[in-house]
Design a protein that fits this description.
Strand order of the largest sheet: 1-2-4-5-6-7-8-9
Order of helices and strands: HHHEEEHHEHHEHHEHEHHEHEEHH
Shape: globular
Largest sheet: 8 strands, mixed, barrel
Structural class: alpha/beta
Radius of gyration: 20 Å
Distance between the termini: 46 Å
Bound molecules: ligand C2E, magnesium ion
Length: about 290
């Protein structure tokens, strides 16, 4: 109840609140304005094919341009947005912006890359999501393997399995693939990979970080890659920062790499500079494959 009141009238409650609770109220209020003003940007982090090093895609990562604080990380505001429901309009903006950017890049002769975006559990469960996807793709061209929704294990565990699966299938029918993000950090078992129509597994950065020196992490990464492959899935390793990690992952047959070694997330115009020298035929051919 206090939280509800705080949304509209933060001031009278201020003296009783902890500093962090107050900061949280301010953040939520600012976020509400940011949504109205579309004060967000997407940055794109390159994803390469492990074997060849060819650029095959990018992950769209949101940033908030705060008028006083500058760029704010999604780690700070996405959890708040999820709690107060603003994640729904934010997620819709992200999806529409990725579809718009993809169409713009194609129209301007850039290669068709596989663009991946993060879909919050709250957004995934929103009744209107499949319809929104349909509408946006009707305007922006078909996806056929070139758009990927990243969801986390918690989304798969979030409710009735049949409902989750039906929703995934509905979205997949429109040519969108699913990647399981931050794989290994949640509580789901490997059986979830078989149970749900997931196409790509993204090994969490925390497992890649100490590879290959840490024997436990190295074994785990190897096991995830082998298991995913035996189920017919592709594997992306997140947080690849060293050439040693890249060689280790290549030797294990990992499919795709993402991380600071390959490239940091870049604003759209800076990302264009790294797409430009690409042989477009090779990249486009890559996308028409099933995920
Ligand atoms: P994520 O989806 O796991 O994205 C990867 C994060 O790791 C990104 O942080 C990226 O910048 C960072 N990263 C990539 N390579 C490296 C590396 O080599 N080393 C290190 N140290 N970090 C690396 P970012 O952009 O701050 O995003 C954080 C998280 O916020 C994302 O994790 C994702 O869960 C969430 N997020 C980002 N954009 C969106 C969005 O549009 N919608 C939703 N719902 N969540 C988003
Ligand atoms: Mg992600
Ligand atoms: Mg991730
Ligand atoms: Mg992660």
């Amino acid at each position: 109840k206090a939280k509800q009141a705080g949304k509209n009238r933060a001031q009278p409650y201020a003296p009783h609140m902890q500093a962090d609770a107050l900061a949280r109220v301010h953040l939520e209020a600012d976020l509400r304005i940011a949504v109205e003003q579309r004060a967000f940007e997407l940055h794109y982090q390159p994803i390469v094919e492990c074997a060849s090093g060819a650029l095959v895609g990018a992950e769209a990562l949101i940033r908030w341009r705060h008028p006083e604080r500058g760029m704010i990380s999604p780690l700070e505001f996405i959890p708040v947005a999820e709690e107060c429901g603003l994640i729904v309009p934010i997620g819709e903006w992200v999806l529409s912006e990725v579809v718009r950017q993809r169409r713009d890049w194609l129209a301007r002769g850039y290669p068709l890359l596989r663009l991946t975006l993060n879909v919050s559990g709250v957004q995934f469960r929103e009744a209107g999501l499949p319809e929104l996807v349909r509408t946006l793709l009707a305007e922006g061209g078909t996806a056929r393997g070139s758009l990927v929704f990243e969801i986390t294990e918690s989304v798969l565990m979030s409710g009735n399995d049949e409902n989750v699966e039906a929703r995934m299938c509905d979205i997949k029918e429109q040519g969108i693939c699913f990647a399981l993000d931050d794989f290994g950090t949640g509580f789901s078992s490997l059986s979830y990979l078989k149970r749900f129509p997931v196409d790509i597994v993204k090994i969490d950065r925390s497992f890649v970080r100490d590879c290959p020196d840490d024997g436990n992490d190295a074994s785990l990464v190897e096991a995830i890659i082998n298991m995913a492959h035996s189920l017919g899935l592709r594997v992306t390793a997140e947080g690849v920062e060293s050439a040693e990690q890249r060689e280790f992952l290549r030797a294990l047959g990992c499919d795709y790499l993402q991380g600071y070694l390959i490239g940091k997330p870049l604003a759209a115009d800076a990302f264009e500079a790294i797409m430009a020298p690409l042989p477009s035929v090779a990249a486009a051919a890559h996308c028409t494959e099933s995920c």
